[in-house]
Amino acid sequence: MQMDIVSFTKRIYENMRLLVNIDHIATLRNARGEGYPDPIEGAAVCEEAGAAGIVFHLRGDRRHIIDEDVYRLKKSVKGTLDFEMSASEEMIRICKEVNPHLCTLVPEGREELTTEGGLNMKTVYSDFEQRVFPEFKGTGIEISLFLDPNPEDIELAHKLGADTIELHTGTFANAVDKETQLNELERLRKGAELIHEAGMTVNAGHGLNLDNLPILIEHVPHLYDISIGHALISKSIFWGLEKTVKEYLKIMDV
Ligand code: PXP
User: What is the pTM assigned to this prediction?
Assistant: First the structure.
């Protein structure tokens, strides 16, 4: 693949970082509408336990995180704040108002239970080029694109000027047999190499847990921010949030 590597400064990171996705603390809160558990309190516990930052996904249907949470998180999160969202006009407006460190753009479907895969860059390219990227120009917000490890998608993301790619690890995480898992790990490894060579940052997330994270880390190089939500928040019901975050950090050796 031909990539203009001169226009980017290669970023070399010593350590990967854990960003905790707190959406499902809000899911639990919304189940009863009593105002607890508070995702903002959860975010503080995660950061105190050593997480480098917090991720939230403000969905069009506001099924978990709501607008008020976003503004409260902006005030209270000390580390990296990653605003995961679709590229709708409404989300871009809120994101620019909130001014997080990172904005991760994902495809969003009304019927889906969770994000089901990466962006199809061929489909979104011209819209992102003409409408979305110009909106963020000069804001200082880093743009991350959530992609499957397809070389064509990575190349188009680079052409657009994305700072970061978050590799979709869901196919690896959900693999039902060893062969499928190894094939997907190999695709992720090659994808991470391409992203790194192009001078973009390699993030990863979706479906990661205490069992599959060590396998991912062993096979995939250049990982920086690892975004983990559902499995971590679920485990915290039994272990507590602080201990659970620390167990993930042990695996990541940070
Ligand atoms: N990264 C992205 C782009 C996502 O959409 C999600 C799910 O919201 C995650 C990471 C976290 O996935 P999980 O909740 O399965 O850990």
Answer: 0.94
